[in-house]
Write a structure and sequence with these properties.
The protein is 52% helix and 18% strand. The chain is of the alpha/beta class. Strand 3 (109-116), helix 7 and strand 4 form a beta-alpha-beta unit. The longest helix has 18 residues, at 41-58. The N and C termini lie close together (11 Å).
Length: 174
């Protein structure tokens, strides 16, 4: 989220930026079930398990995000907003590919990116463990102090500005 916040400030002149995660609705459901909001090992496992159950049942977590993106893309104000960039946070390789395919069917450009921290190697749940099992368009290393991270984001923002956009609506799946 820090990277998206920095990119928002760097890209606000060119893009309307939205930040959506496949875990957002899962967190809401988890809170209604008594989750305390802590993202410790136990909490992360609970969220991962709940998301997996919902995905296995009806692909609900992904469908909910796709519907939000489609609502943004079809908004009547959309044509007057300028270019739109949606960051979709998703970790599971099969879900990432599902988004790429579903958005392509809707003529929405996509770009995949992994944000990695080399210093963090240990993962406790399948969603975190499988995140590297996808071939991403871009790799973003996040092992920097804040000032260095801002510089990295400035360089990345320049790349985003120069992407060839087939439509005025682009999703960046990270």
């Amino acid at each position: 989220d820090t990277i998206v916040k920095i990119l928002k400030t760097k890209l606000k002149d060119k893009f309307n930026i939205y930040n959506i995660s496949t875990i957002d609705k899962v967190k809401e459901i988890a809170r209604s079930m008594g989750w305390d909001g802590k993202k410790d090992e136990r909490g992360r496992q609970f969220l991962a398990d709940l998301k997996e159950l919902w995905t296995d049942y009806n692909n609900g977590a992904n469908e909910e995000v796709l519907n939000r993106i489609c609502r943004l893309a079809s908004d009547e104000e959309y044509e007057t907003l300028g270019e739109t960039l949606v960051f979709v946070h998703c970790r599971e390789p099969f879900s990432i590919q599902w988004f790429v395919d579903m958005l392509a069917e809707r003529n929405i450009d996509t770009h995949t990116m992994i944000v990695k921290r080399e210093k963090i190697q240990e993962f406790f749940n399948e969603a975190d463990q499988g995140v590297a099992n996808y071939t991403y368009d871009t790799k973003f290393l996040n092992d920097y102090d804040y000032e260095e991270l801002v510089m990295q984001c400035e360089e990345f923002a320049d790349l985003i500005k120069n992407w060839k956009h087939g439509t005025k609506f682009t999703s960046l799946i990270a």
